[in-house]
Amino acid sequence: VYHKDFSPTGCPGIRGQRYKMTVRFRNREITHPRMGQRLELECLTGKDDSGAFWVRQDKSGTLHFIVFISSISRATFAGNEKTSTRFEATKDSRFYRLVVKSFTPQDEGNYFCLMNSNQVLYFSPGQPAFFPVTTTAAPTTAAPTTQHSITKKDPCPRTLDPGNPAAGRERGRAGLWSTDSKGDP
């Protein structure tokens, strides 16, 4: 039985509207973190009894698990650890909070809160946390400065048919395919 449940993005099985989640910096005045800063993020869920995951998407688009916070505020960090040297995690009412103890370049990225309900993962919108881009006056012959950003990828990951010769050209889908022997993308 194929169950169609389309999100606003049109992707089957990715449901983001049933449980509304928001992620933001706890201090609303922050737009960019500073080096060494204690950075606090909070995730507000529409449902407070299932726990929440925090993940970070780095500049290359790779997702990194940070912590799972249970409904009774028990934190489990990467490697099944109860504590972390880099992060703190707590639950307060419907807020799941993540603290980056001392923000460094390895902490830059988009932060997401996830919730699992009835075997469906719900993602919050991402909260970008990047150092400000510094621009300096450059000679007119210099190349333009590039800003930190996440490359937009196809929002609907696909499972490709290995029997399809065109499948090898589907480069970039979920990071699984590379160029073929002729160098065609």
Descriptive labels:
disordered N terminus; 185 residues; glycoprotein; Ig-like_dom; disulfide bond; transmembrane helix; disordered C terminus; Immunoglobulin-like; mainly beta; 10 strands; palmitate
Describe the 3D structure.
This is CD8A protein. Keywords: Adaptive immunity, Cell membrane, Disulfide bond, Glycoprotein, Immunity, Immunoglobulin domain, Lipoprotein, Membrane, Palmitate, Signal, Transmembrane, Transmembrane helix. It is found in: Cell membrane. Residues 12-124 form the Ig-like domain. There is one protein chain. The protein contains no helices and ten strands. It is mostly beta strands and 185 residues long. It has a domain at 21-128: Immunoglobulins (Immunoglobulin-like), CATH 2.60.40.10. The two termini are 35 Å apart. Mean pLDDT is 75; it is low at 1-17 and 155-185.
Topology:
Elements: E1 22-25, E2 39-44, E3 52-57, E4 63-69, E5 75-77, E6 87-92, E7 95-100, E8 109-117, E9 120-123, E10 127-129
Antiparallel strand pairs: 1-2, 2-7, 3-4, 3-8, 4-5, 6-7, 8-9, 8-10
The gist of it:
InterPro entries: CD8_asu, Ig-like_dom, Ig-like_dom_sf, Ig-like_fold, Ig_V-set. The chain is mostly beta strands and 185 residues long.
The CATH topology of the domain at 21-128 comes to Immunoglobulin-like
Which oligomeric state applies? single chain
How many helical elements?
A: 0
Q: In percent, how much strand structure appears in the residues?
A: 25-35%
> From the 3D coordinates, which CATH architecture of the domain at 21-128 would you assign?
Sandwich
Q: What is the helix fraction of residues, given as a range?
A: under 10%
End-to-end Cα distance, whole Å, is 35 Å
Average per-residue pLDDT, rounded, comes to 75
Major beta sheet summary:
6 strands, antiparallel
Number of strands: 10
* Alpha-carbon Rg, integer: 19 Å
Structural class: mainly beta
InterPro entries: CD8_asu, Ig-like_dom, Ig-like_dom_sf, Ig-like_fold, Ig_V-set
Keywords: Adaptive immunity, Cell membrane, Disulfide bond, Glycoprotein, Immunity, Immunoglobulin domain, Lipoprotein, Membrane, Palmitate, Signal, Transmembrane, Transmembrane helix
GO cellular component, one term: external side of plasma membrane
Organism: Chionis minor (Black-faced sheathbill)
